[in-house]
TrEMBL record:
<feature type="binding site">
    <location>
        <begin position="88"/>
        <end position="91"/>
    </location>
    <ligand>
        <name>5-phospho-alpha-D-ribose 1-diphosphate</name>
    </ligand>
</feature>
<dbReference type="Pfam" id="PF00591">
    <property type="entry name" value="Glycos_transf_3"/>
</dbReference>
<protein>
    <recommendedName>
        <fullName>Anthranilate phosphoribosyltransferase</fullName>
        <ecNumber>2.4.2.18</ecNumber>
    </recommendedName>
</protein>
<keyword id="KW-0808">Transferase</keyword>
<feature type="binding site">
    <location>
        <begin position="106"/>
        <end position="114"/>
    </location>
    <ligand>
        <name>5-phospho-alpha-D-ribose 1-diphosphate</name>
    </ligand>
</feature>
<feature type="binding site">
    <location>
        <position position="109"/>
    </location>
    <ligand>
        <name>anthranilate 1</name>
    </ligand>
</feature>
<dbReference type="Pfam" id="PF02885">
    <property type="entry name" value="Glycos_trans_3N"/>
</dbReference>
<dbReference type="GO" id="GO:0004048">
    <property type="term" value="F:anthranilate phosphoribosyltransferase activity"/>
</dbReference>
<dbReference type="InterPro" id="IPR005940">
    <property type="entry name" value="Anthranilate_Pribosyl_Tfrase"/>
</dbReference>
<keyword id="KW-0479">Metal-binding</keyword>
<feature type="binding site">
    <location>
        <begin position="81"/>
        <end position="82"/>
    </location>
    <ligand>
        <name>5-phospho-alpha-D-ribose 1-diphosphate</name>
    </ligand>
</feature>
<feature type="binding site">
    <location>
        <position position="118"/>
    </location>
    <ligand>
        <name>5-phospho-alpha-D-ribose 1-diphosphate</name>
    </ligand>
</feature>
<feature type="domain" description="Glycosyl transferase family 3 N-terminal">
    <location>
        <begin position="13"/>
        <end position="63"/>
    </location>
</feature>
<dbReference type="InterPro" id="IPR035902">
    <property type="entry name" value="Nuc_phospho_transferase"/>
</dbReference>
<feature type="binding site">
    <location>
        <position position="86"/>
    </location>
    <ligand>
        <name>5-phospho-alpha-D-ribose 1-diphosphate</name>
    </ligand>
</feature>
<keyword id="KW-0057">Aromatic amino acid biosynthesis</keyword>
<comment type="similarity">
    <text>In the C-terminal section; belongs to the anthranilate phosphoribosyltransferase family.</text>
</comment>
Length: 331
């Protein structure tokens, strides 16, 4: 008879070893559902620490199905759960940035709180998710773009899905999703839905040895740079950490109300993404240019925000991003 692991009390902060073992026990099925429920909810209510997030990410990384990535590959991924129900910003950014010549290993999943997540919209665009997952490494090497479907690369999470649904709110697994990219990228643009978690996740990324990253949160609690107002930004690199505030108008972009980028179901979001790649001026375009600029800075392809915006706009207007999407779907 197997004895279930006894998870620690989440009321007090955990050291790395204790937290790592707790998540290993959960992911490997050694802890019962009721105990996992109480542990995850307790962490959420107390608010997770950088050490706990890093330990959880390490445990998940140890169990993921990896792919090899070329040097300089990046990811653009958010925590989700911001409740904005916006169009798929990071998915469009991944395509545009890859069209600029930066390898992008896009990590994502189906919708949890919105109507269409990255996987849902890409599927509506015509991408075969099973084939894209099976050929992710080849796609990244040949096209400079792949989609790492979380369901395919993190099988250990499947056993926790019923517990997470029963909790019915954000848990630490939402925070570690962007930190467990199966391509083990060391350069990332990470959107955080709650601005008060920026510092905590930044601390976790430093513990995980990130090479270069930008963590962003719109003032409306968006897990992306906001097109409606200022956003808080934390930059991490070998020199340490730098904080700044970015607003659309400082980059020559207009402010737009969030309703202007509100999304719908997967078919609706896919149609808007197609229109974006055809060069149609819109609030969606401006939001993508803003966030693509951040990704290009992280990748070292743009020296500053303005250069990033211009490079991303060129990739769209010359048809490079649309051509890449079409090649990816046919790959």
């Amino acid at each position: 008879m197997t004895t279930l692991a006894l998870l620690p009390d989440p009321a007090s902060p955990l050291d790395h070893a204790t937290a790592h073992q707790a998540f290993a026990d959960m992911l490997d099925g050694r802890a019962g559902d009721e105990e996992v429920h109480a542990f995850l909810l307790g962490l959420t209510l107390r608010e997770e620490t950088s050490v706990e997030i890093a330990a959880a990410a390490r445990a998940l990384r140890e169990r993921m199905i990896e792919v090899q990535a070329p040097p300089g590959a990046i990811d653009v991924c958010g925590t989700g759960g911001d409740g904005a129900h916006s169009l798929n910003i990071s998915t469009a950014v991944a395509i545009v940035v890859a069209a600029c010549g930066v390898p992008v290993a896009k990590h994502g999943n189906r919708a949890a709180s919105s109507k269409a997540g990255a996987a849902d919209t890409l599927e509506a665009l015509g991408l075969d998710l099973d084939r894209a997952s099976a050929r992710a490494e080849e796609s990244l090497a040949d096209l400079g773009l792949c989609f790492l479907f979380a369901q395919k690369h993190h099988p250990a999470l499947a056993r926790l899905a019923p517990v997470r649904r029963a909790i019915g709110r954000r848990t630490i697994f939402n925070l570690i999703g962007p930190l467990a990219n199966p391509a083990r990228v060391t350069r990332q643009l990470v959107g955080i839905a709650r601005v008060d978690y920026l510092d905590t996740v930044a601390g976790a990324m430093q513990l995980l040895g990130i090479e270069r990253a930008m963590l962003v949160s719109g003032e409306e609690s968006l897990d992306e740079l906001s097109i409606a107002g200022p956003s808080r930004v934390i930059r991490l690199d070998a020199a340490g950490r730098a904080d700044e505030t970015v607003a659309p108008e400082t980059l020559g972009l207009e402010r737009h109300p969030l309703d202007a980028i509100r999304g719908g179901d997967a078919a609706f979001n896919a149609a808007r993404l197609r229109e974006l790649l055809l060069g149609e001026p819109s609030a969606y375009r401006d939001a993508v240019l803003l966030n693509a600029a951040a990704a290009l800075i992280v990748a070292g392809h743009a020296a500053d925000w303005q250069e990033g915006v211009e490079e991303a706009a060129e990739a769209i207007d010359r048809g490079l991003a649309k051509a890449l999407l079409d090649c990816w779907i046919a790959f």
